[in-house]
Design brief:
Elements (H helix, E strand, L loop, with lengths): L2 H22 L12 H9 L9 H59 L7 H25 L2 H24 L6 H22 L2 H17 L9 H19 L1 H26 L4 H24 L6 H24 L7 H19 L13 H24 L7 H20 L3 H20 L10 E5 L2 E4 H20 L5 H25 L2 H22 L4 H26 L14 H19 L12 H4 L3 H28 L1 H4 L8 H27 L2 H30 L10 H21 L3 H4 L5 H27 L10 H27 L2 H25 L2 H42 L4
Antiparallel strand pairs: 1-2
Helix pairs in contact: 1-3, 3-5, 4-5, 5-6, 5-7, 6-7, 6-8, 7-8, 7-9, 8-9, 8-10, 9-10, 9-11, 10-11, 10-13, 11-12, 11-13, 12-13, 13-14, 14-15, 14-16, 15-16, 16-17, 17-18, 18-19, 18-20, 19-20, 20-22, 22-24, 22-25, 24-25, 24-26, 25-26, 25-28, 26-28, 28-29, 29-30, 29-31, 30-31
């Protein structure tokens, strides 16, 4: 066979397979095998020549035939279920129900019309019972001749008829007493279970269980002795569980139906008669719980019902414990509280079952997959929940309900520890849930218990009661849980320990709010900061320092806004009330500042090298430096509140420096000096330790103090209060100005010698020197002007015509000051100083023309004009002599800039 014949056969085979797939519904009718277009057209025009089929084609067709028949059967099965459900199952059930209802109506009709009056009661029962037996016999015949589906309806109708007959013997015919009808219905239920096992028909088993559990309800529980009904329902439960265990494939559903019906009937009996016979009730409930647990364990051991076993076990255990506690609480045997012991005993039994029959505690390490593993997890869950429930019911009395909080907290901590040692995330989560219940109870309910409100110790603004001790235990439990859960390597565990730390800190803050006031509350918050900072390097925890910083900021804000400012603004505030600096308020502020320094030390990287070239690599982070600078600023704020007290205590020492100054202006001057000194100290410390934030912040504080002296301490108070008649030059205002100027000079000198790392890339040392020089020049101008203003004050009576003399003196001083600035600019080769001097001379000229000529007399006007004119002439002469030097330097700079393209 040549190549063209093989290709033709393959094409024909592909076409046939495509038709078969389309016929079977495995491919769309439009699909066709891929064939080359040119060869396909040629094939259409060529004559069909029969060729022998290869062996491979015959085999493919042979395999396709059974596939086609099997697929047809599958499609038939897909079409059949609705018909089967309606014709075989639904109609069978409906028919059985209709037959039972019809029998019931017939019995009722015959009774109402008196048809049964001619028959004896025994005959009546035999007739109805015989009809039921006939239906059961017909079901047996149908089971043998046709099948189980056909027998279900007949069996169901027969059993329903027999149940109605047994019930009618007592309710309608008075043939048997209530107890006789009870046992007769039991016989019918046993017959139903036999039929269930005989034909393996689940529906008959469900019907038998339903009739069996309805019997005590219909007959109003007619046992002849106390344990009759428990024995009866025990038999029903045993049959249901036995069928489920023996034949799980058809009868597993009987377990769920039987347990559900059993719970209803047993609960009604337990609350009606279980309180009188509590020992019998607990005995039978324990037996029932053992049966259900054993059947679930057996199914789990076989690998069956991996989801149903834990559900049944959990629900029935909770029913058992709940009803058992209800019976014990109602009976109250021995006048003692047995509820906690009962719940703990059930928890111990669950643990005893889980240890030998399951994989032990190791099953809690990972997600369970097999049926036995899931059952073991369910048992351990029961152990934990029952232990928590035991704590709850043991301390249910109002006066001792705080025991629930203690027990839940201890249990939560224990679970976290167990979860760490396994390790097990599930145990951790359970511990967190139980611990959360304890925390909620401590903070929401226990505070109102009268016993816990008893005060244990009280001193000043601190009061401690039993509830505070309980809340402290909650804080410690939460913090311990955070410490123990931190070992988990998962990201969730890392975030969880931070959340627990935050929760413990928030509880401590709330406890301090509840038990402390004023500075005692601030001190309590500060204790949390100290503990967190001390624990951070020991436990190496993530989040300790950030939490400490947040609490420290809250503490500092509370001290400032609630402790210091309201006390200072209070009408009862007195400078002599407490000692300056050496007082509790200042001690707390100092502790806050020390904690800020501690935070700074926590942020310094640990390195063994001391090489200065590697400083940027080992420089503390900006946040760490900011903490140190914040501590310095807060300490300056605290010292500012002590200035009043210091001034009051040092009145005799200050003497003439402060006797004439208004109190507020005096305080403002001392504040300026304090902040300038603090700024300079911060700048020096930053320069020595090479801390850029501290260095820059110190310079900013000096600048702020200088601005405050120039604007607030001098100009504002001069406009607001007028001239203060204090000694000339030797007064507080002048001395503070000189000291501030000296500190500005020191700041500029230090900044001029600082490197680029300290100043930053956008700031040069010459810029810092220029700013410092400008501030010093402004302070000098202010100092001379203020002292002239004070010397020529009209109120002093030192000079006649003081106002005119003061204006003339100010004009002369400003002119001389401008000349000195110009001269200093030439000497230091500083254009800024020269420009400043010229600007001041221009300002002086304007003052003379606008103020002096308008307000002062002729002689002073002449003096002002003469002085300003001479000063301007002297300035022009100086510029004329030095103009050539200025032009030479300007030309040299221009040539160098032309030669160097980078200039």
């Amino acid at each position: 066979m040549d190549e063209s014949e093989i290709e033709s056969e393959l094409r024909e085979l592909a076409a046939r397979l495509g038709r078969i797939e389309r016929h079977l519904g495995l491919a769309s009718p439009s699909s066709s095998p891929p064939v080359a277009p040119a060869r396909e057209e040629a094939a259409e025009h060529e004559p069909r020549v029969p060729t022998p089929r290869p062996a491979s084609q015959a085999q493919a067709l042979a395999k396709a035939a059974p596939l086609q028949s099997g697929t047809a059967k599958a499609r038939a099965r897909e079409r059949a279920p609705l018909e089967v459900l309606i014709g075989e199952r639904w109609m069978a059930w409906v028919g059985a129900i209709v037959v039972v209802v019809a029998v019931g109506f017939f019995v009722k009709l015959a009774y109402d019309l008196g048809w049964w009056g001619r028959l004896s009661p025994l005959t009546k029962c035999l007739v109805s019972g015989g009809f039921g037996a006939l239906l059961v016999a017909s079901g047996e015949l149908a089971l043998r001749r046709i099948g189980r589906v056909a027998a279900v309806s007949l069996f169901g109708a027969g059993l329903g008829t027999l149940y109605l007959t047994a019930y009618a013997t007592f309710r309608f015919f008075d043939l048997l007493p209530r107890s006789g009808a009870f046992w007769l219905m039991l016989v019918v239920a046993v017959l139903g279970f036999g039929l269930t096992l005989r034909g393996r028909m689940l529906a008959i088993g469900v019907l038998s269980l339903l009739g069996g559990y309805l019997t005590p309800l219909l007959l109003a529980e007619a046992p002849t002795f106390a344990a009759a009904l428990p024995l009866y329902v025990t038999m029903l439960l045993t049959v249901a569980l036995g069928l489920s265990a023996a034949l799980p494939t058809p009868f597993r559903i009987l377990r769920y139906v039987g347990v559900a019906l059993h719970v209803v009937v047993a609960t009604m009996w337990a609350y009606r008669e279980g309180t009188e016979h509590w020992l019998i009730a607990l005995t039978f409930m324990t037996l029932w719980w053992a049966f259900v647990t054993a059947e679930a364990l057996l199914a789990a051991f076989r690998g069956q019902s991996p989801r149903g076993n834990p559900v049944v076990s959990l629900l029935f255990t909770f029913w058992y414990v709940s009803v058992g506690c209800g019976v014990l609480a109602a009976a109250n045997p021995g006048q003692r509280n047995w509820l906690g012991l009962f719940s703990a005993a059930v928890a111990a039994a669950c643990a005893w079952i889980a240890l030998p029959f399951g994989p032990g505690l190791s099953v809690l390490k990972a997600s369970p997959r097999r049926a036995m593993e899931r059952m073991a997890v369910a048992l351990w869950a029961q152990v934990g929940i029952l232990c928590a429930a035991a704590i709850a019911v043991q301390f249910r009395e109002q006066s001792h309900s705080f025991g629930q909080s203690i027990g839940w907290l201890v249990m939560g901590v224990a679970c976290v520890e167990v979860g760490r040692r396994l390790p097990s995330r599930a145990v951790d989560i359970f511990g967190f849930v139980v611990g959360a219940l304890g925390l909620i109870r401590v903070w929401a309910l226990d505070h109102g218990i009268g016993v816990l409100r008893t005060v244990v110790w009280s001193y000043g603004d601190v009061s401690i009661n039993y509830w505070a001790l309980l809340a402290l235990g909650a804080v410690l439990a939460t913090h311990f849980a955070a410490l123990r859960v931190r070992g988990r390597s998962s990201p969730q565990g890392g975030a969880l320990d931070v959340c627990l730390n935050v929760l413990s800190v928030l509880q401590w803050l709330a406890l301090c709010v509840a038990q402390c006031r004023a500075l005692a509350l601030t001190t309590g918050w500060l204790v949390a900061v100290v503990v967190l900072l001390a624990a951070a390097p020991l436990v190496r925890r993530r989040g300790h320092v950030p939490i400490a910083v947040a609490v420290l900021l809250a503490t500092a804000a509370k001290w400032l806004l609630l402790d210091a400012v309201p006390a200072r603004l209070s009408a009862n505030w007195s400078t002599a009330a407490i000692a300056p600096v050496l007082n509790w308020q200042m001690a707390v502020a100092l502790a806050i500042a020390v904690c800020g320094y501690w935070v700074h030390r926590q942020g310094i990287p640990n390195t063994a090298t001391d090489d200065a070239d590697l400083w940027p690599a080992r420089e503390p982070p900006v946040r760490s430096q900011a903490a140190l600078f914040g501590a310095i600023v807060f300490l300056l704020v605290a010292l500012s509140f002590e200035v009043d007290r210091v001034l009051c205590q040092g009145r005799a020492v200050a003497g003439a420096l402060r006797s004439l100054w208004p109190a507020q202006q005096e305080v403002a001057l001392w504040w300026t000096l304090l902040w300038a000194v603090g700024g300079l100290a911060s700048l020096i410390a930053g320069r020595v330790a090479r801390l850029r934030v501290l260095f820059s912040g110190g310079a900013a504080l000096v600048l702020m103090a200088t601005t405050a002296w120039l604007l607030l301490d001098t100009v504002y108070w001069r406009i607001e209060r007028g001239v203060v008649l204090s000694p000339i030059v030797l007064n507080l205002q002048s001395i503070v100005g000189v000291l501030v100027a000296a500190m500005v000079v020191a700041t500029a000198w230090i900044a001029r010698r600082a490197d680029i790392h300290m100043l930053g890339e956008n700031l040069r040392s010459t810029d810092a020197a220029a700013v410092g020089a400008g501030l010093v020049v402004a302070i000098g101008l202010w100092l001379g002007s203020l002292e002239l203003d004070r010397f020529f004050a009209p109120e002093g009576g030192r000079v006649s015509n003081a106002a005119m003399a003061r204006q003339t003196a100010l004009s002369v001083y400003w002119g001389i000051y401008g000349i000195l600035l110009v001269a200093l600019g030439f000497w230091r080769r500083s254009p800024a100083l020269r420009y400043g001097g010229l600007a001041l001379l221009g300002l002086t000229l304007g003052k003379v023309m606008l103020v002096d000529l308008a307000r002062i007399r002729y002689v002073y006007r002449v003096l002002s004009l003469l002085a300003v004119g001479l000063l301007f002439i002297a300035t022009s002469v100086a510029y004329a002599r030095l103009a050539s030097h200025l032009r030479d330097r300007s030309g040299a700079r221009g040539s160098s800039s032309a030669e160097d393209p980078r200039a």
